[in-house]
Write a structure and sequence with these properties.
Cobalt-precorrin-4 Transmethylase, domain 1, Rossmann fold, alpha/beta, 4-stranded parallel beta sheet, 343 residues
Length: 343
């Protein structure tokens, strides 16, 4: 039994994850065919398996999509050439990319078109990094660590700096400062590329850390922002463990300790609640750091499809008086958690 348990907020689903999960749920409800998804819709094992069980197939190449397949592009963003390849094969294509990732793609295109070379700070082979680097593969250079900057010689070039949205501040800041020293005229976006949700969750665990002995981070090993939370806590000299389910609690010695629990931006909250129940704390306290109100609407292509189907059904059944409870206009009132429960 743990001593005090601090349940941290904000935690769990961000606006981009909410949008992507609801979008894929809609796809399952309005199309009878197998839904193909390029990359995991979000980086969470439980969610991926939930959709697999409902006839979603996750693929890694346009070669895996059958002719006239129904396709969704994941929240992490897709390289333009890959997206074009899919368009040649798919009958329906919906892009569930997070708008914050789209922002980075736009910045990469704008900097490249103005003749600049781009240092992109991210994780090699991460879905988001692959998509972003695909915007301008001949002009972008991936950097994972501060030392990697020394391997790139751009002294005679105009240089810009962009980032994967899910980095830890501790990963991003040293590279940014070193890049500024190396390139005094370094170009950067007016607004940080780091995701608001990633930053908010990191700030929350920093602020709760002085109250506890251990911080538990709920999320999958494939989730970059989840790993960033663990890194943030460990950099403070605190114990931190990433776990994906209650099974992993048995390996931890938490008896008599003060513990905080948070979750990465793609972790379902029901798993957090199951872990809280198993911890059996003597005292539970909410630790609220900031309130998030961001909302991202469903992808444009999907909104048009749903509206068209709704109009057709209204014409087919003109006497129907039942008002829809889950419509495009009421999307804000429907959560990703409810969407998953409806499958």
């Amino acid at each position: 039994m743990v001593n005090n348990l601090y349940v941290v907020t904000p935690r769990g689903f961000c606006a981009g994850v909410e949008m992507a999960i609801k979008a894929l749920t809609w796809m399952l409800k309005i199309y009878d065919e197998t839904i193909y998804c390029y990359h995991e819709i979000v980086h969470n094992d439980w969610i991926v398996e939930k959709f697999r069980d409902k006839n979603v197939k996750f693929i890694e190449s346009p070669d895996e999509l059958p002719l006239d397949g129904v396709l969704m592009l994941s929240a992490h963003g897709t390289a333009p050439k890959i997206e074009e390849s899919f368009k040649k094969v798919s009958s329906i294509q919906v892009n569930a990319v997070c708008p914050l990732v789209t922002k980075v793609h736009h910045e990469a295109k704008r900097f490249t078109e103005s003749g600049k070379k781009i240092i992109y700070v991210g994780h090699k082979n991460h879905d988001e990094a692959l998509g972003a680097l695909g915007v301008a593969p001949d002009s972008m250079f991936l950097v994972e660590k501060e030392e990697d900057l020394k391997e790139i010689d751009l002294q005679n070039e105009e240089v810009a700096l962009l980032a994967q949205t899910t980095l830890a501040m501790s990963e991003w800041k040293p590279i940014m400062e070193s890049a500024k020293d190396m390139y005094p005229n370094l170009n950067m976006p007016r607004k940080s590329d780091l995701c608001y949700a990633t930053t908010n969750r990191q700030e929350a665990v920093i602020n709760v850390s002085s109250l506890v002995d251990v911080v538990i981070v709920v999320g999958s090993d494939t989730s970059s922002n989840t790993k960033a939370l663990v890194t943030t806590i460990k950099n403070l000299g605190k114990e931190s463990y990433r776990i994906d389910s209650t099974k992993e609690l048995d390996k931890l010695n938490l008896s008599g300790k003060d513990v905080a629990i948070t979750a990465g931006a793609s972790a379902p909250d029901h798993i957090v609640q199951e872990i809280i129940s198993k911890l059996k704390p003597e005292k539970t306290e909410l630790f609220s750091n900031t309130k998030e109100t961001e909302y991202f609407p469903l992808p444009k292509e999907l909104r048009l499809n749903i509206t068209s189907i709704s109009s057709f059904l209204l014409e087919l059944f003109p006497d129907n008086n039942i008002q829809p409870t889950k419509s495009v206009n009421k999307d804000k009132l429907w959560t990703a958690t409810e969407a998953l429960s409806s499958l």
